[in-house]
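Memo subject: From amino acid sequence to discrete backbone structure tokens
Keywords: amino acid chain, backbone geometry, structure tokens, three-dimensional fold.
Body of memo: The sequence and its backbone structure tokens, given next.
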Amino acid sequence: MSASRVGRATLKSAKGAAAAAAKPANAAPRTGAKKNKLKAAAPVYPEYTPALSKRAHPTLTDFHHHPPSTTTRMSPRVMTVLGVSALGLSAYIGYLYASYRREVTYSQNLSATVPATANVTDRYNTTARTFDADVEMSEKLMRLGAKRRDLCRRARGDVLEVSCGTGRNIEYYDFGPVRRGIVDERTGAVGLRGCRSVTFVDLSPQMVEMARRKFEEIYPGDDALRKRVEFRVEDAAAVGGGPSREITGAAVPGQPKQYFDTVVQTMGLCSLPDPVGTLRHLGTLVDPQKGEILLLEHGRSHYAWLNRVLDNLAPAHADRHGCWWNRDIGEIVRESGLEVVEEKRWHFGTTWKYVLRPARKAVE
């Protein structure tokens, strides 16, 4: 064999050995490669699982086995009910707005004939019989009964209630003997309580008669108590002196008591033609040293938008009910010169409570 042929054979053997070394151990033999290529099974690739952050919840790695959906679709019946409710609510709001605009127009037309200084107290003569029914629902919703009770429980001694109306405060007075006790259950304040006598005053004869009947219904047959109560048709601005001898039992003729111990007025400043002057006058009717004036009123709010509503409807409301519900009670109290002992407000600031007493400077 020639040298060149030997060299080629050696080179061929070396290439074959290198190829065999590079071939994987589990590789199929090359014999019948074409036949094996046809029969070879399709390669199996591992399932792809995306890499997630270590903070990811383990269940997020299962993208191929989703749990059944728990989303509940709204039934057609529920959708119908909601749709009808929304339609009814929008219609009601539209009705309220239309009624408000109509009332504002009516009120503006009245503003020329019923100015803010007009005396509308005569309206109570016609509304006396239905007054309690007209205000019952609104007072319950606003819980004014509890506020009336807390105010009247503070009254003591000889009491004067002006603008008594139909007597909505009668049931809240403590007609027991004057004694020391808790006058405010929430704060535990202690003071004198119990009413020796109560004088009810209102400008409307019809209102006074309704109050008298209500007293008879609450305390039927109580002759002893009836002697300590008096009902008078009188202007609050003209009430003079203290309680009459008939209800105080004064033993010395010509020496009646000069002052009341407490003056009460609830929802009355709104209807008085001169609220500042009347309140100043009430300050002269109580004991200069220990007397108190108790007020529960309604008037202007904390909020400008609500005050606009009150102002827009005030003439119409006053013409129907004899009440100017947009008065600034705080300003009236300040102008009266009385000393403020306590002040509270509720219902967006429209309900006012005051405990007042004569100014100390005036006493000195």
Observations:
- The mean pLDDT is 82.
- Residues 76-110 form the longest helix (35 residues).
- The chain is about 40% helix and 15% strand.
